[in-house]
Amino acid sequence: MCICLTGRAYNSLKGVRMLPKRRFTNKPLLLPTLLLCAAWVTPMRAEPASSDSDRLQKLERAVELLQQRNAELEKEVSSLKKSAGASPRPSREAASAPPAADGKSVATKTEVKEEKPVVFVTAAASEFKLTLGGFIQTQIEAGDVSAFEGRFQPASGEIKDRFRIRRARINVSGDYKEEFDFKLEGEFTQSDVGLTVRDAAGVTLGSNSTRTAFGGTDLFANWHRFPELNVKVGQYKAPFGLEQLTSDTKLFTPERSLVTTALTPERQIGVMLWGKPLANLWPEQKDLISYSAGVFNGTGRNISVNDNNEFMYVGRLEVMALKSKILDQEVAVKFGANGLSSRDDAGNTISGALRENSDGSISSFSLPSAAERTAYGFDASVRFGPFDFVGEYLSERIGTRTVNGIAPLFTGFRADGYYLQGSYFVIPKKLQLVTKWESFDPGQFADDDIHSITAGVNYLLKGDDIKLLANYIHTWSDFRENNSAFEHSQFDEVIVRLQVMF
């Protein structure tokens, strides 16, 4: 086969051959080169009468295709080299062998470090939503530490200035398509007063006072098929007391008021019905009415035994009287009422801060003999733009009763108290001023009221997720003031807290 080229075509072809030489190490390049040459030669034989211009255009097209294919192959080779480079390689320290003292190289074993597999977590059950969270509250306390809780020094034991991990909790919660939700939460640092249950002979039936490492807080499952009627089973806060039911992370002050600590049942084990009756009947006003009613052991959290065959009955009703906008400000007005009834046997610790000591201080109250309790409370909360106001009153009667012929070993009494709290955002959602007035009457001695006034400032770095709270609390005791035997009747404390949620 002979191919003739004109002078012009020959010069063009020489130009092609004068292109910069490339060293192709990829053998697949040979096949497309031959195919393109064949494609170029065949038309030339089929059309011998073609002009030099047509032939030159075909030759230039062939060269252009070769260059394009060459670029594509180079990209593929580069990609393969990168993939090979990502495979595990010996560490630099293992690959380099230091020379010996005589100048000879020393043979060392090369260790290849394998890549660790990616760690992943999946739910063991069929939840469609699973959330892991928690929070840490750490604070510094200085001055008359815990005096606002009725712990007066030195008779009730002096507490020094201290740094304190107030709470450190972790939780997991989830939802099922079958309309169940759950929450499991535990606390690493126990900061509340322990509760103990004893029988009439003084034998301890159950206690959580020795918890020093980890203990459960919220441990429950809830069926929410109907918003009008939820069913919650497990351990959680009994529905009594607005301030008690407010989450620890949402409070405007580091600590709750003394009346709340003394008279609310906190977390209990039992079952509760709750819901919003108007959720479907009147969706626009679904929050107008909400209720909770539960039956519990009445012996405190993390105590699985009951002190007797009777239970604690607790109920709460809330009414959202107003929820609207006035003068372009969010306005909400809510009222609440709650009640409690329980019959307890001797040895049951009914409160972490109710027993009044001879110096007017307050400590945990374990019943010396059988008793019955009835309690009630009212509360109101108002929000108008940057202003918040909350007020609550609680009252509890601890009466005596005779069981198995055992006469009462104490005198019945009524304890009550209240608090009024106001706050204002100086900088919206960032800097908040807070003040609180509270009063508590243990009801066991004459003129034994304990009063406190709090002034505080809250700085929300990232809402409730990260915030600083600083409080100054001034407390005084009427009982100690009216008895000259006591040197101090007024106390001062400063609390600064950092809260981090995750």
Please tell me about this protein's structure.
With 502 residues, the protein is of the alpha+beta class. The chain has two domains: 26-45 and 52-68, no CATH class; 129-501, Porin, CATH 2.40.160. The chain is 16% helix and 43% strand. The chain contains seven helices and 20 strands. The chain has helices at residues 7-17, 30-46, 52-85, 92-95, 242-245, 258-263, 478-481, and strands at residues 129-143, 162-175, 180-187, 196-198, 204-207, 215-226, 229-237, 267-275, 289-296, 312-326, 329-344, 349-356, 362-366, 371-384, 387-400, 413-427, 431-441, 450-462, 466-477, 490-501. The strands form three sheets. Strands 1-2-3-6-7-8-9-10-11-14-15-16-17-18-19-20 form a 16-stranded antiparallel barrel. α1 (7-17) runs parallel beside α3 (52-85). The longest helix is centred in the N-terminal third of the chain and has 34 residues, at 52-85. The radius of gyration is 40 Å and the shape is elongated. It starts with 6 loop residues before the first helix and ends with a strand.
Provide key terms for this protein.
502 residues, 2 domains, two-stranded antiparallel sheet, 7 helices, disordered N terminus
Offer a quick outline of the entry:
The protein is α+β, with helices and mostly antiparallel strands and 502 residues long. The chain has helices spanning 7-17, 30-46, 52-85, 92-95, 242-245, 258-263, 478-481, and strands at residues 129-143, 162-175, 180-187, 196-198, 204-207, 215-226, 229-237, 267-275, 289-296, 312-326, 329-344, 349-356, 362-366, 371-384, 387-400, 413-427, 431-441, 450-462, 466-477, 490-501.
